[in-house]
Amino acid sequence: MATKHEQILAYIETLAVGEKISVRRIAKDLQVSEGTAYRAIKEAETKRLVSTIERVGTIRIERKKKENIERLTYAEIVNIVDGQVLGGRAGLHKSLNKFVIGAMQLEDMMRYTEAGNLLIVGNRYKAHEYALRAGAAVLVTGGFEAADQVKKLADEFELPVISTSYDTFTVATMINRAIYDQLIKKEILLIEDILIPLEVTAHLNLKEPISRYHGLNEETTHGGFPVVDHTNKLVGIITSRDVIGHSAKELVEKVMTKDPITVSMQTSVAAAGHRMIWEGIDLLPVADDHGKLKGVISRQDVLKAIQTAQRQPQQGETIDDIIKSQLHQQISDKLILEFRVTPQMTNAYGSISHAAYTMILTEAASAILKTKNRKDSVLENASIYFLKPVQLDALVLVRPQILDISRKSAKVDVEVSLENEIVGKAMLTFQLLDR
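RESULT FIELD:
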């Protein structure tokens, strides 16, 4: 039976997009405490089922598919620009496909403004009205108000008119930054993207006999299975090591490993892969915040996802991407990489930051491992020494060297030099993945 928390989330999903909800209403309709209702609404906000806006309240929004994650809703725009909704609140749940800056003649402005757009403009009241009639929402900059006629049209067409105290340039920069952040999120693989759902996941009940494990083992050839109780709550995991020497009639709960390591739907695939390597496990159960089993992922699932993932068009670059793009290989018998320190890599003192320095060393070590056909590796430990600061615009040479390599691990020494003088050293240990 579903918990009250799960019942509330299921109830919120049944609400019409655009409908306003409140803690008090949820508590009354489902006969739960206001504290329980509040916690469930906050989780719904994390899952992007609802959006809470100051002075407006919480409204049901459409859950975005990952391919459309960069399309912001008008409700999100309000929060990004610290805005105030002047009219058209019923349309806050809608998504915009682009924004138009109204820094041109009215006729030209309207030529670029279409349905689903957001017109960013100052106190040009005719432009407000024309945009609404064209099917676009309006963001009024500079803290200006909108005419009463415009507010009525906004309510009639269910298109928001939002006011913000920021200027047009600042607002455009803020929205661009939000879209850019969403593009970076779009590229990151999460467990929910590769999950084998519970409906098709082979699992055992703790009251079943070990003979049931043997049956599933023969049927699927998998060596381990999650164990659940009568409510589908994850209580353990059972593997071939657990059943050795036990009778087929014994119950699963007697031999299973209790309190197994789990991940959530929002855990990144990379983080899950690292965890599996460090813990030496091949199967990870996926559970929600209440311990209910949602499915499983295997080490093979993780490797396949990482190896086949490709950068989609119009993706945002992270700082790591920028740093990697600065690394260039010199033409030489030995692997020597060079990079130039850019402003993004520096700290407050104008020298290379610890994070950027670590990333460069790790990338250099990974590059030399690839020359040995070991393309899949995970950094396990690093001892890094800053001998001298490396300043902005400095052209630095990085020389990685493999000290020891086996089937499962490798040790790499990395030397960093500037103008023939050593400025840094590092010793890095990697776990090597089976391909």
